[in-house]
Amino acid sequence: MNIADIILQIVNDSHVPMAHEVFGDPGLDAVFKVMETVKTLYRHIELERINGQIIVFQVVGRDNVRERSHPVGPPVDFAGLANQSLNNLCFEIADDGRPYIRPLGGATPEELAERAVVYIYERAREEFLAGSRRKLVKRYDTSTLSQFSVPTFSSLRDALQKFSYENVRESTCYIFRQAWHDPNRLFFKAKPESLMRNSLVQFLSNRLGGEYDIWPEQNVNEKNPVDIRVQTRFQVNRLMLVEIKWMGDSVDDNGHVTAKHRDNRAQSGAGQLANYLDEQRRSAPSHVIQGYYVIIDGRRRSLPSNATAEMYISRENGFHYETQEIEFDPAPHLTRNDFDPPYRMFARPVCND
Amino acid sequence: MNRLEPDATFDCLYVIKHLHSQREGIAQQEVHLFAYLSCLLWIYCERPVSDWGYHFVGTEHGAPYSPEIDVALRELLERGFLRRIHELVGLTKHAEQVLYDLTTHSINKERAECLEAACSSTAAFSVGMVSSALAKEPELSRARAVPSRRFLLERAAQTQLYDQFEALRKALQARGHDLRLPAVVWLTALYQLNKATPGDL
Fold it and tell me: N or C: which end of chain B has fewer CB within 10 A?
């Protein structure tokens, strides 16, 4: 598909052109105001803790003073919602541009949309309504629940820590989830490295600010590519190398174990990254180079020798390694200042107790 | 003291003000990025790139960079118009007042529309997504493919860009003059161009 076709498809299928087509320029103002408000809201609340729907709307085309919205009560301070148990939130953006809690009463979102741009979120499904039309919002970041809850990090360290918590811990990323052989997340598929790398590449591309360039699989010598190379766009002498290794057991399509990676694997990866850093320093002596070692930890205790369809694991065995740090010897992160402490990311299983 | 280029200075203040409302602070490189997007929207409006007031080069990594923006950022920091927030920057109160005054000048109206549309795209995308999308823009993707520092938006190189804008104008026929609409549609298209989107629901 060429870009002209893609543009046409977007104009026909997405919410911003829809709001403009239905309500004209006021519709465009409203859809941007709603998106900005939703983004602000999602900086303060955890979407996983929301039960029911979130609705945010702005009425369009109130022509005279009598029709203007008269908010009841003060505008909402989203920060105050952070630790509350939340069900079915509904906010109206009033004429002053601020959000107010507005119970829907007996009205439906469809009725509201006759004169408003309406956003609805429910269980990771987002759509906009305007007039009699509705459009789903395309979610480009597979690890988030909303297209409007993708944060921007200003450092690779912050981003890696968040990747561990958001993508790996519960295997929430669509790409990362494909690395598992079974739904209970006990065995990895054979050679899951590329899926893990793609998951991290997508995460970093979407969430690091505009100052970083992310390059997957970049050669550091004739033979070996480092998993991800991150460069700052303007400080051209800054270079960050990210190496990913995984621990745990992998199986082929028939359930036969293909690899069992434990501490030795983590150790060898640390040595590998240290070598990459040395080689880079030799080939680019004027660069400031830093190494980041990511270990995806899918170890489980007492797994069966082969994967079967009905596999379960107890909580005790499934989480046994969650808090067991790896002892490195040698430990490059303790002896050299260009090697960050390893980022071990434990991927939790689904347990039967 | 370096001479400040007036348009670049206005653009720095405008971008930092409008992006800062959503974030703790702005990375200086992001000012170059959004100023460049604004300049592209200027071209979309069929205005000559020479009227933008300053130019951009593509860095070895395929990023837009303007020497005039760079000077403006450094001078604005030195003269107390910008404040440092760790490694990021934000406007001081004084700078906000100056920006307010400058924005009311009719001479800045047209460029403010482009800047506003560029910054508003962050309502629909994260800054990282805007950056990823813009990397697919014909000029920057060429700069990335041939890593060497060279001027962007020179006449000879603009054909592909004009073709894309022509397709965009055609698709948005009779949809008004608000640049936020073409900005979001175009960035979405660029983002989709080479991305697999397994998260589509």
Answer: N
- Give the pLDDT of residue A317: 93
Of A232-241, B21-30, B57-66, B86-95, which has the strongest mean pLDDT?
B86-95
- Interface touch A209/B191, C-beta < 8 Å: no
User: CA dihedral defined by B168, B173, B178, B182, rounded to 10 degrees?
Assistant: -20
Q: Where are the domains of chain A?
A: 3-136, 153-346
Structure-model confidence comparison of residues A314 and A282, the more confident one: A314
Do residues A333 and A243 touch, judged by C-beta distance below 8 A?
A: no
3-state secondary structure chain A: CCHHHHHHHHHHHCHHHHHHHHHCHHHHHHHHHHHHHHHHHHHHCCHHHEEEEEEEEEECCCCCHHHCCCCCCCCCCHHHHCCCCEEEEEEEECCCCCEEECCCCCCCHHHHCCCEEEEEEECCEEEEEECCEEEECCCCCCCCCCCCCCCCECCHHHHHHHHHHHHHCCCCCHHHHCCECCCCCCCEECCCHHHHHHHHHHHHHHHECCCEEEEEEEECCCCCEEEEEEEECCCCCEEEEEEEEEEEEEECCCCEEEEEECHHHHHHHHHHHHHHHHHHHHHCCCCEEEEEEEEEECCCCCCCCECCCCCCCCHHHHCCCCCCCCCCCCCHHHHCCCECCCEEEECCCCCCC
Alpha carbon A37 to its chain's center = 20
Q: Interface pTM (ipTM) of the complex?
A: 0.91
A159: nearest CA partner in chain B = B128
Domain membership flag for residue B56: yes
pLDDT-above-70 percentage for chain A: 93
d(CA A133, CA A281): 58
Q: What is the pLDDT of residues B153-177, one digit of tens each?
A: 776 667 889 999 999 999 998 777 8
**Token duo for residue B65:** 């960079």
Distance of CA B80 to the CA centre of its chain: 23
Task: Flag whether B1 is in a domain.
Answer: no
**CB interface of B with A, residues 4-43, below 8 Å:** 22-25, 27-30, 32-34
Task: Give B 51-110 residues with CB within 8 A of chain A.
Answer: 59-63, 65, 86-88
**Mean pLDDT across the stretch B11-23?**
89
The per-residue pLDDT for A49 is 80
Do the Cβ atoms of A140 and A206 come closer than 8 Å? Answer: yes
- Alpha carbon distance, N-terminus to C-terminus of chain B: 54
Across chain A, mean pLDDT equals 88
For residue A74, count other CB atoms closer than 10 A to its CB: 9
| Contacts with B155 (C-beta within 8 Å, 6 or more apart), sequence order | none
Q: Do B193 and A3 touch (CB under 8 A)?
A: yes
Domain containing B187 equals 6-200
B102 and B90 in contact (C-beta within 8 Å)?
Answer: no
